[in-house]
Recover the amino acids of this structure.
């Protein structure tokens, strides 16, 4: 975009300069706070939610998500109203939205009527600040709150109405083009992920050597396997670790994304805090680096691999690989494969979200016993 001929400095901490033809106007010139509550008429209003995708309708009857017993304290929202979450602002993914709907939203949010400004221009401005969390200078308290009066008193740069419309048209066009490109990339990524999953599943269950003689596996979760492969009891390849946590053990976290890593590293990678165990440490279990772990999500995402030693929830099951028969990298892929996860799910009719799998479930699934050098070949093939 071309630069304007001349600029003026602003007193705004998050914006150094604006075109000289723009004005700096307080939000109270555009915003009128609404404090209408639904009261006993809550059933007449659809429930709204403020998200990164905008203000959306929520289906209370779906049973998904947490809802209060009563909605009396929820606020009425009209189409074109602005909705702000002015607390926990760093932790809230999106703190600004313009509603397309008539409905109700939590009374903790602030609802405003907009006037004398293009609502899309207003949204784009505050969404851009929200993306970078630039309103920090206005925060107060531990919950990083901006008082309503403080927000109404804050200034924003405002061009003429004609220029607002031009900017909105430009941004609407560009964002639509970008969204279209993103959807295309997402479809491509989904196809590649599907292909990757199929390649991994084929490699860990049939090997990567071509033209070899095969035989029936003899187990229900595998079809034909190379003739020189064997199927063994899982307990022949992995022993159960029963060690209690040690005094100097570091707290670990299980993640389908990262495997078993230290809780501190998990928080650094994710940029968020998790619950730290302060009581009942005597019931935690010890994990050694190189152990495989049956976690609360293993029915859904397979087994995890521990990169470090430490302590973890007693609900988890630690497995010690027999390295005479187990090459770790191969089994890391096998235990994440579609075929193995389905086999693990088949060990119980009661598996559901949050239900712990036991060593008994793991032991029911026969595992391929392959020469170590071939396990390495398969792992190398997948890794490359």
């Amino acid at each position: 975009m071309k630069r304007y001929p001349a600029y003026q400095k602003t007193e705004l901490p998050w914006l150094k300069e604006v075109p000289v033809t723009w004005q700096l106007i307080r939000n109270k010139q555009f915003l009128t706070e609404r404090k209408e509550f639904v009261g006993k008429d809550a059933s007449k209003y659809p429930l709204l939610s403020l998200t990164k995708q905008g203000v959306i309708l929520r289906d209370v009857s779906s049973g998904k998500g947490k809802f209060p017993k009563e909605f009396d304290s929820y606020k009425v929202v009209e189409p074109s109203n602005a909705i702000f979450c002015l607390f926990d602002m760093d932790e809230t993914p999106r703190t600004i939205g313009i509603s397309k709907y008539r409905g109700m939203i939590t009374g903790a949010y602030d609802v405003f009527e907009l006037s004398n400004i293009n609502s899309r221009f207003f949204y784009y401005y505050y969404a851009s600040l929200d993306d970078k969390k630039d309103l920090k200078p206005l925060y107060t308290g531990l919950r990083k709150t901006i008082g309503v009066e403080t927000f109404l008193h804050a200034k924003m740069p405002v061009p003429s109405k004609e220029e607002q419309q031009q900017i909105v048209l430009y941004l609407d066009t560009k964002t639509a083009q970008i969204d279209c490109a993103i959807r295309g990339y997402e479809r491509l990524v989904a196809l590649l992920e599907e292909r990757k999953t199929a390649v991994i599943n084929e490699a860990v269950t049939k090997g990567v050597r071509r033209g070899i003689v095969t035989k029936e596996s003899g187990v229900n979760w595998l079809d034909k396997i190379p003739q020189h492969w064997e199927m063994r009891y899982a307990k022949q390849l992995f022993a159960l670790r029963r060690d209690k946590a040690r005094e100097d053990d570091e707290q670990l976290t299980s993640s389908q994304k990262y495997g078993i890593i230290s809780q501190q590293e998990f928080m650094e990678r994710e940029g968020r805090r998790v619950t730290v165990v302060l009581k009942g440490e005597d019931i935690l279990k010890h994990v050694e680096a190189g152990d495989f772990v049956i976690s609360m999500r293993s029915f859904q995402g397979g087994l995890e691999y521990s990169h470090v030693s430490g302590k973890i929830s007693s609900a988890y099951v630690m497995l010690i690989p027999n390295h005479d028969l187990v090459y770790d990298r191969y089994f890391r892929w096998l235990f994440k494969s579609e075929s193995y996860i389905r086999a693990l799910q088949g060990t119980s009719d009661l598996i559901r979200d949050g239900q712990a799998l036991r060593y008994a479930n793991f032991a029911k699934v026969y595992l391929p016993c392959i020469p170590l050098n071939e396990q390495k070949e398969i792992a190398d093939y997948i890794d490359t």
Q: What stands out?
A: The first strand starts at residue 7 and ends at 9.
